[in-house]
Each structure stands twice: as structure tokens, then as C-alpha cells.
Amino acid sequence: MKRRNFIVNSSLVAAGALVLPQNMLAFEQEKFISKRPLKSERNFTSIAVENTIKKVKVVIKDEELAWMFENCFPNTLDTTIDFEIIDGKPDTFVITGDIDAMWLRDSTAQVWPYMPLILKDEKLKQLIKGLINRQVKCVLLDPYANAFYKDKTKISHWKSDKTLMLPGVHERKWEVDSLCYVIRLANEYYQITKDVSIFDKDWNKAMRLILKTFKTEQRKNNESTYIFSRETTSVIDSPPFEGTGRPITPNGLICSMFRPSDDATMFPYLIPSNIFAVLSLQQLSIIYSEVIKDESFAKECAELALEVDKAIKKYAVAEHLHFGKIYAYEVDGFGNKLFMDDANVPSLMSLAYLGAHQPNDKIYQNTRKFLLSNYNPYFLKGKYADGQASPHTGKNKIWPMGIILRAMTSTDDKEIVKCIKMLKATHAGTGFMHESFDKDNPNDYSRDWFAWANTLFGELILKVFNENRKILLEEF
Predict the structure, then answer these.
(1) pTM, rounded to two decimals
(2) Does some domain include residue 42?
(3) Which of 62, 92, 163, 319 is most open to solvent, judged by the fewest CB atoms within 10 Å of its CB?
(4) What confidence tens digit (pLDDT) does each residue in 133-150 have?
(5) Comparing C-alpha atoms, which of 11, 14, 10, 77 is closest to residue 448?
């Protein structure tokens, strides 16, 4: 797939090389010319998405915010989609943006804001169905891999990693949430459409492989053969002890060698991902019980969900000195706990977004207060914003995704407004979200083309439009 260029004015400027003189930047911000590709160069177009953009834009009083929404919300469709029919079935490959590989996590998250529209647009519905089919192929190829190529002859940049690198695998970092996102997408598609055709024999094989992988990674008898080691100077790019991770005491939780940031875990039991796994296994159990009519497999899924949930309550909840009972981010089963959060999803902040908690649940509220305090080592305050960071980008960079999730899980209008103001103040004149930005200098940012963050920003504005429209009548 070729990389698309974004429109700045009469000339085409690659998104990865956007550098404008200050006077031109001011002019462009004043005019707010669309940064979307030309219609003829967009990878995919949805009538329902285009109609939604028009409907929402007309309500947004702040011209710059409306411009950002128009740029960001369709970014996944505009620039990352490769859709075709393969063997009579729709197939959708979704690159993450400036990396031309498909992450199981990112691909689901990138299309998630479009899900409520699929009954209004058959093309969009087929796109989602095609992504479900593609994700099944990926899981069957290797349930431990996090990112894939469509072209199996393509040589990965990470080919030297000491792990089982099969053709078609871009990266093989074992992350529990990757498989959860596969279930999340299929479940949501079915709940909206009631289309049972996605539950074919390959999907069934993939779900059984997911359950098997989860059980294996409980590591009750050290039965996992997964290892990952990379020659690197970064301590967060590879698990210690020859790629096997730090010691654990088996307790029912599922080991994850990596976080959603693709950074190695400190303690292998990553709590947000285990909570996500409980939700996913419960969804899978209902599908197999009510739709597929396989009570035996449904029971297996339900029992594992219950086991993991009990372990979370026993090992991952602790009394904080200042905030009462909160979730730890990672634990090891020996009693050691890591208190922090990472701006990716799943995160502790995102638990209300994922549906694991209601925003007003006591333990979530306590945890959220901790996350937005100086006691969280990855909550940063700067000249232009305050928000969650990630070890992935160092000690000084805030993630727009963290600010977005803070707004999406908030019940306080003032907090939501504050978050939108910070997002508007830190896009560095580009009209797009980035992976991260320096807390004191938004022009120092990482990733020009990060479709997940762009689409998530669109999801936030759409949520505010649907649930709290008066906020959009403000100037930010």
C-alpha cells in the first residue's frame, strides 16, 4: 500500500515532513484548509462517515476544533485501509499509519468509532467484516504476534529478534490485549448486525486458539515456550532473563510480556489487560452459549473469566496511602506491585471506556484520582498541558491519547472542556493528533501519522456531540 499525502494548500505535503514557516502556519490555521487527501486518493470512503462529519461540524462553534475533527475522524479510512475480496470473502488490512504493518489492537481501535454507523452503510459494514476475517488469519498464523504484514514475502525490520518469526509477522511481542481486541471487534459487529456468518470454522479455530493461549500464559506449570529477546540498548524493548520475563508465582492471572505500548512489562501480570481479558472471555462465552450453541466451550470461557477476575480482586487491588483501594498496574504474585499507568488502551484510565467499570465506581474513582496526581510517575504537568505519559516516549512527553481517554471517562463538564482545550493547544498546527508531545513544547512531538490517535480524537468529539452537545457551542 502506498502512503497517502495530506493536503495543506495547493501543494501536496507528506504528513511525515510537514514543516511550515511561522507566518504560513498562522495563515493556514486562519483558513483551516482540509488536510484530508484528495477524494481520488482516499483509500476508502463511507457515505455514513461523510454525513456524520457534516452533521457534527455544523454544531462545533470553534472553527479550529471543527477543522481538527474533519481531519482526524476519517483518517483511518482515508489513509490506512486496504480492502478487497479474497476467496469470496471481504478482507480488510489496516496499517497503523507511518508503520506499514497491521496491529491487532490498533486495527480494532482504529475502526471502532465507525461501528455505530455500519447499519447505515453496507460498504462500511463489509469493511468491518473484512477486518474480522483478516484478524482471524493473523491469529491462526501466530497468536503471540502483535503486528502483521499482508504480503508474507515482506522482510520484517525485526527479523533478528530471538523468537519464532514466521513469514507475515512484523513483530512478535506477546500482549494479552491483542487477542482481546479480536474478540471485542467480532462481538461488537455481531451485537449491532446479528450477522452470524462471521462465526465460521476459521473464526472458531481462532477463538479456541485464543483460549488455549490465555491458559498457557497463566504459566501454572511453566509450560509456555514463548520467549522474546531483542538486541537493543533500551531496557523496555525486551523482557529480562533471556526473553522469559521476571519471576512470577502462578495465581490465575495471565502473563503479558509486553504492554499495549509494545514496551516490556516490569511484572508479567499486567492488570488492565487481565481486566480486558475477563470482559472478552465473558463476551466469548455468551456467543458460544447463545449463538453457536456450544455449551462446553462457553463454560470453559466463563470459568477462565471467573478465575482471572478472582485473581484480580485478590492480587491487584491494594490500599494506597493517599487514595484508598486502587488497582496496581502490574503485579508478580509474590506481593510486589507497580503503581503507574500507561497512556495506551487498555490502561487503568481506560477501564470505564472499555466497559469494565462505570465512571462512578468507587475503585475506579480512587484509581483515577491517583492517576491524575503527582503520585503517578507518568502523570506530567507542563506549560501547555497536563496528562498521562508512557515510558515508551520517555520522561517528558504527554500522550494526546491519554488526554482523550481522560475526557471520555469524565463525568465533569469542566474537565472535558479542559481536555479539549489541551488537545487544541498541542497539535502543533498540524490538525492531527500525535503519539506524544513535549510537555513544554508541543512542536517537539512523535509520529506525524498515527491513525489510532486521530480516530480516537474523532470518537471523543462524536461522544460529546451525542451526549453533551452544549460543550461544542463553546470557543476553545
Answers:
(1) 0.93
(2) no
(3) 319
(4) 999 999 999 999 999 999
(5) 14
